[in-house]
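Intended use. Records such as the DUF4348 domain-containing protein entry shown here are meant for training and evaluating sequence-to-structure methods. They are not intended to support clinical decisions.
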Amino acid sequence: MLKRHFILSFSLATMLTSCESNSTNTKSQHSNETAIISTKETVDNNFNDFIEKFSTDSAFQLNRTKFPLKTKWYDIFNDRDSLIYRNRLDFEVMDFRKKTLASHLDQWEQKIVVDKNNTSATIEIRGIENGIRVDYLFKKINGAWMLIEINDSST
């Protein structure tokens, strides 16, 4: 129950906007590719710069998320790990600029860990005495940071 409360609280706290439907027209695809190319040189050099843009620009966030997004979580009721793949329509936009949340039920802290080669990074959300444990995994793909997986092992 605490895990579900955290997921709801975190989603509400980090939601910026509703996701738009996935357009398949060529013009939209071209503008998406242009957005990635134009920002690649600046935001992809420093993960913190990337996260700032990722958190403040919902279109950029959708473009920099690998869909279908692999999402793992621990199913406490069935005592097993579960896996789903979220498509673009099911995705909730996130804001990683907030480093802590201190409500009376869901206290947590955020830590960013970037590998020494600057090719993969993890944003770790760790609860304070409440079992919250969520990792957001990012990887550089063709020189551009991408969210590739969410791993929620909260208990």
